[in-house]
Amino acid sequence: MARLSDMPEALRQHVETLPLPVFEDTPSANGPSLSERRVALISTAGLSMRGESPFGMGAADYRIIPGNAEADDIVMSHISVNYDRTGYQRDWNVVLPLERLREMAEDGTIGTVADHHYSFMGASDPETMKPGIDMIAKSMKQEKVDAVLLLPV
Q1: Fewer CB within 10 Å: C terminus or N terminus of the chain?
Q2: Best CA proximity match to 98, nearest among 49, 31, 29
């Protein structure tokens, strides 16, 4: 686990000053039972499809992960001396449980798996991520996604 006291001064100051979003209200929505829901994943593991450009430090953009992606199709560009990639290297479902989601759809626990999933780079300023989040929300609405698993890494 990374500790602030172990980080270089400049990095520690950056992390300590990252703004946290303030939400005016707590929206909620009723919906179908879990067995009828269309589910998407959003990860902050810095994942992209093989061949795409990697995330840069502090990147606010996102990558789209197709619902039929396999482990060999995905790469992680989240690299830091304070970040242990061992879990991802052993089982990509630790940061993007797409195989588990497919299993849940097959056994009827959830309705369907979304056609698209999304990844951001972790440790980015949430305020700069908002335009991307708005675009993703619009895409998910068009795809009729009614449940999202947020996977902060």
Answers
A1: N
A2: 49
